Amino acid sequence: MWMDLLHKFLAAPEHFAAVYVIPFVVVLSVLVFVHEWGHYIVARLCGVRVETFSIGFGREIFGWTNKAGTRWKVSWLPFGGYVQMFGDMDPASAQHADEKQKPLAAEEKKVAFYAQSIAKRSAIVAAGPAVNFIFAIFILTGLYTFVGQPYTPPVVGKLEVGSPAEKAGIRPDDKILYLNDRKITRFQDMVQYVSVNLNKPIVVRLVHSTGKDTWSKDVVAIRVTPALIQETDRFGFKDERGRLGIYAPPKGSAMIKHTLGSAFVAANADVWGITADTLKALWQMIKGTRSANELGGILRIGAYAGDFAQQGIVSLISFAALLSVNLGLINFLPVPMLDGGHLAFYAMEKIRGKPPGERFQEYALRVGLTLILGIMLFSTWNDLIQLKIISYVKHHIF
Question: Which CATH number is 150-255 given?
Answer without folding.
Answer: 2.30.42.10
